[in-house]
Amino acid sequence: MKKFIIIIIIFFCLAYLSNFPGAALAQEKHEVTVALKLIPVIVVDDEGNPVRGLTKEDFIIYEDGRQVDISAFEAHFLGKERAIEKALVQPIRAAVSSERARQFFLLFDYSQSDLWGIKKAKQLGLEFIDTLRPEDKISIIAYSRDKGLVFYLFSSVDHQKAKAIIQELTEIPTTKQLKKVRDDSWLGSQTEEIERQWLQLKAINFVNGLEELVKILTYVPGNKDIILISGGTPRYYLYESRSPPDKFNLQEIKPGLFDRFTDLARSLASAGCRVYAINAKGHKVYLSSSSWERGDDSLRILTDHSGGRYFPNIAATSKVVDDLETLTGSYYVLGYYVEEKWDGRYHQIEVKLQGEKKEKFRLYYQKGYFNPRPYAELSDFEKKLDLFMLATEGQSAYFPLVEFPSRAFLTELKGGKGKVYLELNLAGLKKQDFLRGQVEWLIFILDEKGYILQMKQRKLLWSQLPATQLVIKLSLSQGQYKLRTVFRDIKEGQAALSTTWIAIPQKDQVIKKSRSISPPW
User: Fold this and answer.
1) CB-based contacts of 357: which residues, under 8 Å, 6+ apart?
2) Which residues neighbour 162 within 8 Å (Cβ) at sequence distance 6 or greater?
3) Rounded distance, CA 230 to CA 296, Å?
4) pTM of the prediction?
């Protein structure tokens, strides 16, 4: 029976999230706003080297077949020297400057890797993170046959945290499970067929996992660079050849996973994702495997259609990292103004070069974008992902966000436990009328590394909350904590957020008792 791909967001309290409402919600109207749409564009020559020296006048942008005016232009070139060149036609507003930051999704595929490949993958990941600029965002994702797609970190600028997560990864590749299949001698003559079916199912599940990832990344604005470290799907399952391994013949193939990989690559390109695939088995696969076992074809499909690049040998770690830094750090940013409507509509983008340069160079860019969708149209998983991002990063992937003040103070320390009062100042929010109707009220307690330790959740009417101040009583052990409070409109998705910090000292330290407050709970 086909195994269902489970998508897990680690460090997240799924027990609480299972209570999220699933009923259909009425579609709400949103005001039309004018936004600056930023399109990163990579320009390379015939040898794949970044092209410098282009200007705003060299580019033309079409949206849905209509030429638009380029209102902003920048040139970014980042190499080993860490130098950035900028040519500003119009300064890009600070409000949207975060869209210029590079977004990396480091994806470890355990299902198609061995222990050697995983070790090299972790080494490459750590070295690559050291090349990032402070504003660059990094996500850490792993795929395994048993757990499916697992998010360990989502869109964070905390690069040290990302490195710590990579160092702590302890997943075991599925080669160990395959050995068990081969060692079950009681299967007799059926062993070979069961092994083939098992490997095919593993390949199908991997594609399922990537398709789920595309659904998520489609609504993350801007260009995304996916660094996929994988051994790839064997050609045997890519093409569904029934020829014996020693007589593998491309003339006899029929489409198998090949079509799904092709569609997947096109979807990634439409979502503004470039795939840089590194073969986790390296050059040794050409020495120890027959051609039908190699996974390089599947990796090349993903890179060729999405505008990325395939790296055949993970053993050349430093060279791969240098090339990744050059390719992902060399790009132009073109900006134009659009009317942003909350209707989920897809807009097609085409970027061209003018004059003789249009035939001389290749362009890689986001082929289109989706308008934001009404909250009611998001899946339960997308809502949970947005909440996870609010909790860990203090930002929303989809909806308007406002901040309000809060503070936490220690009132008592006894037996290693601290009594903490979290004070929320709601006066500004109440005056703005930003939230209304039923809201979700969530309090996240995170440790000093940013991991979620605890979550408190409640649903209530916004009108039931006090007009000025709200105080919550917490009990915390010794340590340093980040306390993040979220109010999210259940119907429309807007959220209000506040963040504060508290340190609980050792039990032998003396504290002064703060003023007495009577919390409403």
Assistant:
1) 54, 58
2) 106, 129, 138, 140, 153, 156
3) 9
4) 0.58
